[in-house]
Amino acid sequence: MSRFSPRTDFSRTPNPLAEALARHRAHGLPLLDLTVSNPTQVGLPTPGAGLLHPPGAYHYAPEPLGLASAREAVAAQVSSQGTSVSPAHLVLSASTSESYGWLFKLLCEPGDDVLVPAPCYPLFEHLAALEGVHTRAYRLPLAHGFGLDAGEVEAALGPRTRAVLVVNPGNPTGHFLHEGELAALAEVCARHGLALLCDEVFSPYGWDLEPGRVTSVAGRELPMLTFSLSGLSKVAGLPGLKLGWVHVGGPASARDEALARLEWVADTYLSVGTPVQLALPELLAHAPRFQAALLERVRANRQRLLAARPAHAAWDVVPAHGGWSAVLRIPREPGEEATCLALLDAGVLTQPGYFYDFGRGAFLVLSLLPPPEDFAAAMPPLTRVLAAE
Ligand SMILES: Cc1ncc(COP(=O)(O)O)c(C=O)c1O
């Protein structure tokens, strides 16, 4: 038997819901999928054909941090979210996920740890483990609408903690970081010498105009090393094109050292393709059209969900301000998994809160991306199953 690294020793045992779903599909039963998160599969606009064959697509002139024209286009995109940023402070990668790997290499020794929010999309544990890095959870209290509590961050710190990850707005909670939360977090980061990694992939998807909301930390004067992450996958709904970016900010000397080191990491991989970089200005010019269509879709589906909820129901839609999901608080009995299995029997696929580490309470997570007719058709079985609990 060959020996493999424990870093790749992930569980491959399917959970009961995955097993039930496989049986459901094997029997050819109808299914309304309220977990779909792939923006290319739900009938949203895509850019015109031909953009990925720009002149010069086959010419290779490696630029570790990314082509100047592509970094300028990203700088304009990031600046439109808040403060003006310089292309010189940007690093292009193949995806946000790859950016995390590069940042963990930059900041952590194997055995160090990073703080991750809970509840949250379950991405970081695996990305960190592949770099030999551990994660420690800090709670986003339900009582604060899943907002960031700097006291929870500080309480979760360990002797080897190097960075704090924030997802703004949270996935799936849809809570945006607020100015007061950022100020308190910055104070904790500065006092403990921690870097901030701020995942802003969903920040263009605010549903309303909330006062005090932070849409991006890029370009702000903050006392700690700050990395803002995003990419084409969510900003333009193009996950298959493989282009992400990191904006590096914070005190100038630490920022410049981080950029020099990241250039070296990026030069080791040279992972971003030339055609997508050359097409980036036009792909980003298409982004507002995609974002407007997506926002219309998620707002309308959320309205359908709110309208379907009977008055005095034992379940509720958790208040939120953005993103692509809805979170339902459901009765503790019969619990998340039993509810998801009952919904699957009724032909509706949803996710249990434990996929996202909600901790206390019982929750369901629904995607707001499905085509309107699918989402509307799922409301009667959803409300029927939830009413039976
Ligand atoms: C919060 C968050 N960050 C990052 C990603 C991954 O982004 P990318 O496709 O750029 O790797 C996801 C994927 O859903 C996500 O939910």
UniProtKB/TrEMBL annotation:
UniProt GO MF annotations: L-alanine:2-oxoglutarate aminotransferase activity; pyridoxal phosphate binding
Principal EC category: transferase
Record carries keyword RNA-binding: no
Cofactor list: pyridoxal 5'-phosphate
EC number in record: 2.6.1.2
A family per Pfam: Aminotran_1_2
Origin: domain of life: Bacteria
Aminotransferase class I/classII large domain boundaries: 60-356
Gene3D superfamilies membership: Type I PLP-dependent aspartate aminotransferase-like (Major domain) (3.40.640.10)
Keywords: Aminotransferase, Pyridoxal phosphate, Transferase
Family: Belongs to the class-I pyridoxal-phosphate-dependent aminotransferase family.
Protein name per the record: alanine transaminase
Organism the protein comes from: Myxococcus stipitatus (strain DSM 14675 / JCM 12634 / Mx s8)
Lineage, opening ranks: Bacteria, Pseudomonadati, Myxococcota, Myxococcia, Myxococcales
